[in-house]
Amino acid sequence: MPSVSASTSPRETAWARAAHDLAGGWGQRQLWAHLGWQDIRQRYRRSVLGPLWITISMAVTAVALGILYAGLFGNPLETQLPYILVGFIVWGFISGCINEGSEVFVANEGLIKQLPAPLSVHVYRLVWRQTLFFLHNLVVYVVMLAIFPQPLTWRSLAAVPALALLMVNGVWVALLFGIVSTRFRDLVPISQSIVQLMFFMTPIVWIYGDLLNSSNPTVAERARIAEFNPFLHFLEIIRAPLLGQDQHWRHWAVVLAITVVGWALTLVAMRRYRARVAYWV
Amino acid sequence: MVSIRTVDATVDFPIFDAKSRSLKKTVLGLVGGNIDSDAKVPVINALRDITVDINHGDRVGLVGHNGAGKSTLLRLLSGIYEPTRGISEVRGRVAPVFDLGVGMDPEISGLENIIIRGLFLGMTRKQMVARIDDIADFTELGDFLRMPLRTYSTGMRVRLALGVVTSIDPEILLLDEGIGAVDAAFLEKARGRLSDLVDRAGLLVFASHSDEFLEQLCTTAIWMEHGRIKEQGPLDAVLRHYKGIPEPAEPAP
């Protein structure tokens, strides 16, 4: 019988307790996997198509925006549409983790105050739910492959570790943002507006490579600034393999660096403030 | 060994009003120095100097007025709140029954809620499925278990929550007063099950305003007042003092 991590002992250091929280939450996989799936079913309760709506709405958005921006930029649809679609799917995951992450503990106030469970359970549940959304959206990608075949190679398999990295980052983002914005509630709207802004600053509807090589030097210059945008790198490591494109290793390096730094920060926050969350919610 | 030990544990709640729970003040505060009293977050001392030692087999009643700290104490004992100062040490698998509406999803069936609650308390799905019949039997909810939880009355929810916690063999059972919502016949049934459980595996802490329930379930008591322990000892003595009944229990005229 798995033991509930409610046992608290003064002999444990704060570090050990933080690690205990993360490991204990991981041990309750059945719980958060169930709840994450439940969340999705719940959202589409009583609707005939159910979670299929996730897939449909993604398809509609991607097709509409694909046609629109193909026209605006004068790009062929078979380039623009796959680019926008994959960008949207990945962005949905990233923005979901940040936006819902900043509210994760506030939204689970009831559970946190009623049941002694590791805090990380709520975060794993959130990231799992976002992953399920991602997988639902991947159906659209597969359909798109049939219409606009991409030059996929064995290197496209890099998308799998890329998604794993995205999930690992989703966990620290939700933990860190969750803790901080439970204390400072203003951070919820702040981070939401930043995420919205970043959508436009990140090459999702506009094609990064095209603008870099633009004949207009001003545009090329500005596009280069996107390198400082961390989201660009997260997007690239998964979009390039899915579209069968070559990618530069620097994107992976940046993502790995962010993963390490982010987790380090999060562990410090967990050590210092984990026990305070129940008081703050 | 199942036990709960606290030494001088204190629980202080910072109360952030809309203004102080924002970055603005912290940022400005760094620049401009402290703005006397309102720069500090007001704090509610919910629990003070709590020293308890509850062991295997103990059945402790919690008494005290509203706001005396009974529910907060239960949360401290369950490990939900770690003390802001002092020490608390909880050994054993905890199963709390506090606010009955929470931790249960009103839109899904009683059966599914049973499983989720069990998972929250550290059980596996398989273990919970194996216990469903037993819980259905005990709660007497029958076909209602297939209905969404929102159709349940308060008493039915209490039955469900009690059914779950008593079926999973917890070592530490913490009950808040809400369980008073069940009818007398069911409580009688629950009492047997609860005492069995405590005898077998662990300890019970039960907060209630009902002498009857307390006498049925508990042997010792803790009297809370203004966030402090006013008295701990045998149930009848504590109850007598709490009610202000003068010493040797004379039958009331």
* Count of discrete alpha- or pi-helical segments spanning 4 or more residues of chain A: 14
CATH architecture of the largest domain in chain B: 3-Layer(aba) Sandwich
Helix coverage percent of chain A: over 70%
Helix proportion range of chain B: 25-40%
Euclidean distance between termini CA atoms of chain B: 46 Å
Per DSSP E runs of 2 or more residues, the count of β-strands of chain B stands at 9
Q: In the CATH scheme, what's the topology name of the largest domain in chain B?
A: Rossmann fold
On the 0 to 100 scale, the average pLDDT of chain B is 82
**Main β-sheet of chain A, in a few words?**
none
> What form of chain A results from the Cα inertia axes?
globular
Question: Which descriptors apply to this entry?
Answer:
heterodimer; A: 281 residues; mainly alpha; 14 helices; 75% helix; globular; disordered N terminus; B: 253 residues; alpha/beta; Rossmann fold; 2 domains; 9 helices; 9 strands; 25% strand; ABC-2 type transport system permease protein (chain A); ABC2_TM (chain A); cell membrane (chain A)
Report on the architecture of this protein.
The complex is a heterodimer of chains A (281) and B (253). Chain A is mainly α. Chain A has one domain (12-39, 50-280). Chain A has 14 helices and no strands. In chain A, helix 4 runs antiparallel to helix 7 (120-147), helix 7 packs antiparallel against helix 8 (159-183) and helix 12 (230-242) crosses helix 13. Chain A is globular and about 60 Å long. Chain A starts with 13 loop residues before the first helix and ends with a helix. Mean pLDDT of chain A is 90; it is low at 1-7. Chain B is built from 9 helices and 9 strands. Chain B is of the alpha/beta class and 253 residues long. In chain B, a hairpin with a 2-residue loop joins strand 8 and strand 9. The interface between A and B is large, with 34 and 43 residues.
